[in-house]
Amino acid sequence: MDAVVWIVLGVLLAVAEIFTTTLFLIMFAVGAFAAAGAAALGAPVAVQAVVFAVVSALTVALARPTIRRHMRPSVDSGEQPFGVEALEGATALVIEQVGADQGMVKIDGELWTARPYDATQTFEPGARVQVIKVRGATALVWQDDISSPGELPEAKR
């Protein structure tokens, strides 16, 4: 009967992890499942508790740092960004007027829906903007200080 209690505890912890998404409670679920294994082998309750504590602590100490390292954005970890993360900071060309309700930009040859990072701004077609953040399939853009082709700002002449 002890194994069933540990299994129920493990399942409850795993379900709770789904709602927290911190990858912390799942470590204790692993400990509970290990304690259930000890209970199934006939270990006394004190040994089951020790198995739960040791396996949970080892899982937190050994697995969590690795998981956290892989969850960090590549910019923070010094790795080369890829996917949507690589678009942040890129220069984009406005194709359709970008305003609070609509807009289209071209980023590295691909068309993206866009909105201004500052909702009070609008950008006209042909303007160069910088991608500040990507939310879903929409790029949030900001006026970039890059000049249009063939046009040099006063400071660069």
Automatic annotation (TrEMBL):
The chain crosses the membrane at residues 7-35, 41-63. This is NfeD family protein. It is found in: Membrane. Keywords: Membrane, Transmembrane, Transmembrane helix. The keyword Nuclease does not apply. Residues 84-142 form the NfeD-like C-terminal domain. SUPFAM superfamilies: NfeD domain-like. InterPro entries: Membrane_assoc_protease, NA-bd_OB-fold, NfeD-like_C. PANTHER family: INNER MEMBRANE PROTEIN YBBJ. It is a multi-pass membrane protein. It comes from Micromonospora antibiotica.
